[in-house]
Amino acid sequence: MAEGQEHPLSVYFWIWGLLFIISAFSYAVDYFQFQGMLRWSLILIFMFLKAGLIVAIFMHMVWERMALAMAIIGPPVVLLFLIGLMAIEGDYTESTRLEYFGADAGVYAEPHSLAASEEHH
Amino acid sequence: MSSVATQQLETGAKGFVKDWESDKQTFHVPWGKAMMWIFLLSDTFIFSCFLVGYMNVRMSTRVEWPPVSEIFSLSMGGAPIPLLLIAIMTFVLITSSGTMAMAVNMGYRRDRAKTAALMFITAAFGAIFVGMQAFEWSKLIIEEGIRPWGNDFGAPQFGSFFFMITGFHGIHVSIGVIYLAVVALKVLRGDYEKKGYEIVEITGLYWHFVDLVWVFIFAFFYLW
Amino acid sequence: MVVAYAIILLVVGTIIFHFWSPWYFTEIAADWGAIDTTVDITFLITGLVFIAVNFFMAYCIYKYRYSPDKRADYEPESHKLETWLTIFTTVGVAALLIPGLFVWGDFVEPPEDASEVEVVGQQWYWTFRHPGEDAVFGNVDIRHIDVNNPFGMDPEDPAGRDDVLVDSNVLHIPVDQPVKFLLRSKDVLHDFAIPQFRVKMDLVPGMITYMWADPIREGTYEILCEELCGVAHFAMRGRVVVEDQESYETWLDGYPTFQEVLDRPEPNLIAGQGAYAVCSACHGADGQGLQALNAPDINGLDAWYVERQVRYFKEGVRGAHEDDVYGRTMAPMMAMLANDQAIRDVAAYVASLPAVYSESTVTGDTARGAEIYTTCSACHGDDGQGIWSQGAPSLVDTSDWYLVTQLHNYQNRVRGYHEADMFGEQMQLMSDILRDEEDFNDVVAYINTLKEAN
Amino acid sequence: MAYVSIADRDHEQEHHDPQSFITKYIWSQDHKVIAIQYGGTAIFTGLVAMVLSSIFRLQLGFPDVFHFVDPTEYYQLVTMHGMIMIVYMLTALLLGGFGNYLIPLQLGARDMVFPFLNMLSYWFFLLSVIILMSSFFIDGGPTGAGWTLYPPQSISEGTPGVNGGITLMLLSLAVFIIAFTMGGLNYVTTILQARCKGMTLMRMPLSIWGIFVATILGLLAFPALLVAAIMTLLDQLVGTSFFMPEMLSMGEANDYNGGSPILFQHLFWFFGHPEVYIVALPAFGIVSDVLAVHARKNIFGYRMMVWAIVAIGGLSFVVWAHHMYVSGMNPYFGFFFATTTLIIAVPTALKVYNWVLTLWKGNIKLTVPMLFAIGFIFTFTHGGLTGLFLGNVTVDLPLSDTYFVIGHFHLVMGVSPILVIFAALYHWYPKLSGKMFNERLGQIHFWCTLIGTYVVYLPMHYIGILGVPRRYFAYGSDFIPESAYTLNEIITIAAIFTAVSQLLFFINIFWSLKYGKPSGGNPWNATSLEWQTPDTPAKHGNWGHDLPVVYRWPYDYSVPGETADFVPQTVAPRDGVVAGRNHGVSTD
Ligand code: HEA
Ligand code: HEA
Ligand code: CUA
Ligand SMILES: [Cu+2]
Prior knowledge:
The complex is a heterotetramer.
Chain B: H1 3-6, H2 12-21, H3 31-60, H4 68-71, E1 74-76, E2 79-81, H5 84-108, H6 112-143, H7 157-189, H8 192-195, H9 198-223
Antiparallel strand pairs in B: 1-2
Chain C: H1 2-20, H2 33-63, H3 79-108, E1 115-122, E2 125-130, E3 164-166, E4 170-174, E5 179-185, E6 190-193, E7 200-203, E8 208-213, E9 219-225, E10 237-243, H4 245-253, H5 258-263, H6 269-283, H7 303-315, H8 330-334, H9 340-352, H10 366-380, H11 400-411, H12 424-431, H13 437-453
Parallel strand pairs in C: 1-5, 4-10
Antiparallel strand pairs in C: 1-2, 2-3, 5-8, 6-7, 6-9, 9-10
Helix pairs in contact in C: 1-2, 2-3, 6-9, 7-9, 10-13, 11-12, 11-13
Chain D: H1 6-13, H2 21-26, H3 31-61, H4 71-107, H5 115-134, H6 165-193, H7 206-237, E1 248-249, E2 252-253, H8 261-295, H9 302-315, H10 333-359, H11 368-391, H12 393-399, H13 403-433, H14 439-466, H15 482-515
Antiparallel strand pairs in D: 1-2
The structure holds heme-A (2 copies), dinuclear copper ion and copper (II) ion.
């Protein structure tokens, strides 16, 4: 190797093309209105594929030495805990809301006034 | 030259252990690159926290989430095409990532002119992206009446998170555009002829990261 | 050397302090002995470790003190020792954790037969709601809350009609009957804690949390708010009374269901005016008050506040203290008001009198007063008009000399002394901020300036 | 290869000593000067926070005697006290101060890898301090929301400082985080990439390990605080509803809708728990070095110590919700977090054992730094053990949000790291100034601080068990016996005594600067690199012409067969054999 991350240009063109194609796929997921599990898994798969390609090739992670790669990929593992637990938490919060406040939550786009505010002087 | 530079490094798991056991330096990369990677790691945590917040609030609200793909549609010849603008923005950003990757490559080939040109192109794509984002924002705000504090379609957090996270991303892109332009100018001036062109790669890392974040935003905000 | 002895002394001192200190858990009143047991286990294990580690350290310091002729040992590590210590610690920690997890398992799953009661927190007092006969709580929503519906009951929800609304900061619960507390906050975070029950839980606006306890000892226990909720956090108190089933039921009957609240007739101003004839002798026909008779200006006060005070006078909750010379004149007057409806009528009439500010008589340093008033404004409002949700009355609509008297009364515990006085204790704690005569005058003088600003 | 080797970089780093006073001391890029700037600023803020605590202690101890605190001010004082102490004093002092000073010196580097960024870091830190302090002078005063800044309360009417205090606090935190990131990137990169020849990771002094892992924790945990701060700011200023549910405010429903207050708490503690280790780990590291030097013995179980630091660092990201057992989060989380929390006690326990075992069979010199280090072991063990009470979810039920918690964290954080900081300041004072401090005065200072704080913090636990809640301006409860008030008076007196006795330290420092005996370059006969610099105090560039070369770990004390009872890291092995222990791979 001469100086740094030097790879044949064709690699980049390949990845470039792939990224376009995958993006088009994920766009198609919405365009054809897939729903439910299928939609979610497709979205996630395409997302991770794209992210993986960018990190691996464009950011040269596959060519980096393992010491660096691990140091960068390792720590985000703790985020998985955060994500998982916050998903459970969000669910729990919603369940108490539905149970005690009812499901008919309106949207208040504009400030709503209450009897109280007039009542009071 | 230092001993490490000439010595053949082992690869794989064995190299991994060796690297961590070595003296002087752990990663065989320039200081600036190591620092950029660590910074990006830290930045990953920022974006992740934003997205985790988004997930949690979206899951816990009792109010319907607005119909995303309708809101983000763009009329083409009368018919609304969902996510058209976003699709274009995605393509612009990916393209810029491609040109950036080429710039890095040209840099290491010491092709000053091409490197600088590609970087300027990248920056231009970045600027176009920001411009389109500004257009999208103004459309949402003016036409759809979506505000950070509320909207007519459903949960008010839709606008809050949307503007906050895309805004934060937009700031990253804008900083990236400036960063790219500055480095490109210096490349052109020949500042790195002696020092080497790692700086282009470091700038590139930042730029690809911005693209990376967009991949997640695209999936979680527009498609979900 | 001294330091080795000092460490031993500190350890011994700590142990003596532990056993001799009179400061320990209050006597338990709920069936949470298991919690106390886990605490004991924890004390035992950590205590032993504490003693062992420190004594060993003191020993080392003593034994291996410096001498130029000696050499320290050279032993970088000992895997065997380290392994043993790891195992020992893991075992110790597990011994703490496992019983704890079992008890926590109990805590998160209230028994099937637990009765339910809702605890409602707001800045800065407690109220309560029972689900009524159907044992189902009606839906609530912040948007329904106003001065006539402080609980935010959904009028559309039939399940809420029989809910009993306890607009008091004293909760009664029957003894030996597990109760699940559903916790709801109307504004910010609060925390429902009763030291004698051992358990506590935060109230989170926008959701309902819960905890449960099985009271085993009759008595009256203090409810503390243990989550910072603003300036009056420390003054947010209430009481739980644990009593036998019968007294409990009598108590509960004393509170109206939501249906009954809805059915209340509108206050009758004519009747109120009639009743007010007696009052006008002192407070004047326009409610302007008469200092000579120590009767304050009452026009402009809100109906809810007048109603509450009248009720307190009538029930001896206020104005029955022997030192409350002027307050005591009120009780006989109130006897003339036959029932709650009469009280509401007269209160509505007073509230309908045109608000005319009375003359200022108190002078003081208004700049200092303004500083003191920063705290007061959290309840009485920046403009001194009072805030209904805080239960705090207008201060500008009454006579300034009367404010001074009342502040003294609170501080001397002449007002707010009664258990049933929902807000008295709070104002007592607040009045303690005023340390000398000048403070009283300064703050009231500042309140006078608010009248002019209006 | 791609990278330019370190050897080449050395030439770049060879600066000439800057000339003018301004470039030398104000806009300096020398890590040692930046360290002193950071440290000085942090100590100043710490003193402010200490004075605040004395003031509010007077209210707690003598509510009937003293005049000057009302509830509004009380909450402002407590909040500022807590926030300043944790973030602006401890974090800045341990990482900005000691981190900056020690990293290049102990690793044999000339400076941080990016000195300019390092300088910028300090100036941003100073800016954040200025923003923070300015909130004392604005209308409405600083925020009184508690250092945890929980919304909705922190941005709702009824809390002191909602009109600006909280905004400044959040802004200041954001600026602090930027400053920290600039510094932190420097520390981590320097440690990873700019060590001298022979300095493997496993030959680094434990101080560096502590600072290293703490900095990584900071880089990964502060983002959560930044995000929480940004979202809170938007809720307050723009009217979004991230954390704000529909709620009543001053009798009227506000315009918020559907936010989740619990989410803030999760984000806050996802930062907050690592944060407590950010201030603990550097202290752990530094105290290890002080103990080894003054016990003339290697640190016991170096490898274990390193792995314990790494393990604590990693685990600290999965225990955060132990601060939220009674917050109304999903109650089943209690099982998970109680378990992880108690697991983290195991590596911590090993560290405690290893400190004590370092003393065992040592040749202990009871110098002033050593006294402070021993004091640390005592207070930290005590505080750590009370942490086990709180970590055990059931036991936390009665104790959460009472003075027991206050007692716990003041022992582990309000005194343990402080004792280490003093140990460190005394230990490295000769290096910083070239002078020796006054031993006697240092000893008195130690006794006053140790006994004083213990008298303050031990009784707090018992008041807490009794049931006295924290953040109470006044008590007035039925179940609190008269004797508890007396105890509170004693605590207050002890607190003020301790606070005043800190003067001894400053007297000592300044007096010795002028009249202290010259210390020489290595007064403690220590092995690590910072003691081997050609000049004391070290000059710009640290090492004169040649960088040091390291041959051994930094704990070669009392090596059998050596005449001196210490062998500096730079001493080459005799006959090709390292007499002492040689962790890591040999270099040649
Ligand atoms: C330096 C700071 C620091 C450190 C090191 C710790 C260490 C620990 N902390 Fe602490 N903690 C704080 C600072 C710190 N904490 C702060 C600031 C708060 C309050 C924040 C606020 O609310 O304002 C807090 C609050 C806090 C809570 C929340 C309480 C509540 O609000 O209800 C909990 C609960 O789990 C907890 C637990 C622990 C535990 C288990 C440890 C453990 O890491 C301790 C481990 C150490 C030991 C255990 C001692 C040594 C071990 C041995 C000698 C051996 C053996 C033991 C056995 C065999 C049993 N802490
Ligand atoms: C590092 C952290 C730290 C330190 C050192 C202290 C030091 C002290 N703290 Fe602090 N305290 C906190 C962190 C700290 N505190 C936090 C986070 C809170 C929670 C806030 C909240 O609830 O929001 C709190 C809350 C708190 C309360 C509870 C208030 C309440 O809940 O109502 C009390 C009550 O007595 C108290 C008292 C004291 C006292 C008397 C001292 C001392 O003054 C003890 C004596 C002095 C020393 C030990 C000297 C220390 C020296 C320096 C600080 C100067 C630095 C200089 C050099 C190193 C050279 N503190
Ligand atoms: Cu309510 Cu504190
Ligand atoms: Cu913690």
